[in-house]
Design goal:
Strand content: 15-25%
Helix content: 40-55%
Number of strands: 9
CATH architecture: 3-Layer(aba) Sandwich
CATH topology: D-Maltodextrin-Binding Protein, domain 2
Number of helices: 13
Structural class: alpha/beta
Radius of gyration: 26 Å
CATH class: Alpha Beta
Largest sheet: 9 strands, mixed
Shape: globular
């Protein structure tokens, strides 16, 4: 009987030891599992904007594709600084990813200013095809500045809004103080129209327009509603398009080079899918935003064709001054 009890106790002890061992092994495995690498992405729009929605999609795709090895934390609303500050941070890998416009990148990469020239793109279809093909030519320039191009998202065709008057003739543009992102192409574009260019960061634009530091600005309806710009801009001319707004998703080159070849492929594929989603979402935002502006009481009217003809004539010298003829031709020849 004693022998049986001893054997039973021994079995219990062995089982207990095995359970303890397995439990400890699981805990050790859990504590020794590598933590995901966290990358930071910054942009200037709020959390309802298509850029943010597509950034969340990008993060999900990267996390899934890398099996949790890489996570992306997103900082909207210029939380990490304005675009110039974010670009400088990305160059030294303090920031890993950002969404930025050519209007700001031009101070680092002068040749990208061609994308801000007036009347480069005929319509959205042309813009998307050109940026997805010829637009990759800018990747080499980005890399010389320690940045890596991943894809080009959409801001939209930028139309004039102002707080002063309906634009019925070219003379109505003269003397307007127009807010721009400070770069030479946009400065000369505004000056050619007889208006005054006022360089103001996007994060300060609402207050500047509200206080009269600037009278006008160029943007699609979507960003205007997103930043409540329409509240201080009574007049909107949806056919007075001065430039197209691209938005490049770039990564710190140091971060890019630290990824494995497989991770780089995952990022490019994820950036491409997020780009397609963002472009569609931004078009829907544009329609809803324009209606919201009308409902708010904004005066939304097209300018006469004579004004458009005058604008094109006045802005031709700007393209001749700043545009590389070969690059302009490559972009405009895309079918």
């Amino acid at each position: 009987m004693k022998k049986k009890l001893f054997c039973f106790a021994l079995v219990v002890l062995l089982i207990g030891s095995m359970v303890t061992f397995l439990g400890c092994s699981k805990k050790e495995a859990a504590t020794s599992a590598p933590k995901p690498r966290v990358l930071k992405l910054g942009h200037k729009m709020n959390a309802t904007h298509s850029w943010h929605k597509a950034s969340l999609m990008l993060a999900d795709l990267v996390k899934e594709g890398t099996k949790g090895e890489i996570e992306i934390q997103i900082y909207p609303n210029s939380e990490l600084g304005d675009q110039k500050q974010m670009t400088e941070a990305a160059q030294i890998a303090v920031l890993d990813l950002l969404l930025g416009a050519p209007a700001e990148f031009v101070s680092f990469i002068p040749e990208i200013g061609v994308l801000d020239l007036p009347f480069i793109f005929r319509d959205y279809d042309h813009a998307f095809k050109a940026l997805d093909t010829v637009g990759w030519d800018f990747d080499k320039a980005f890399q010389t500045k320690n940045l890596k191009l991943l894809s080009t998202w959409n801001t939209g065709f930028k139309n004039l809004s102002n707080s002063k008057k309906e634009i019925k003739s070219i003379n109505d543009l003269k003397g307007l103080k127009i807010r721009i992102a400070g770069n030479p192409v946009l400065i000369d574009t505004v000056k050619a129209l007889g208006a005054n260019a006022i360089s103001i960061p996007w994060s300060e634009t609402y207050i500047a327009l509200q206080q009269g530091t600037a009278d006008a600005q160029f943007n699609p309806a979507g960003p205007m509603v997103d930043a409540k710009i329409y509240e201080v801009q009574k007049y909107y001319s949806p056919n007075l398009v001065i430039q197209y707004g691209a938005e490049q998703l770039v990564m710190s080159l140091k971060t890019w080079n630290s990824l494995t070849a497989e991770q780089q492929k995952i990022f490019l594929a994820a950036a491409d899918k997020a780009k397609e989603y963002q472009r569609k979402e931004s078009m829907l935002e544009e329609e809803k935003a324009l209606q919201k502006m009308k409902d708010f009481g904004c005066v939304v009217t097209d300018v006469p064709q004579t004004v458009l003809d005058d604008v094109k004539r006045l802005l031709t010298p700007v393209a001749e001054k700043y545009g590389d003829p070969a690059m302009i031709k490559k972009l405009q020849d895309v079918k």
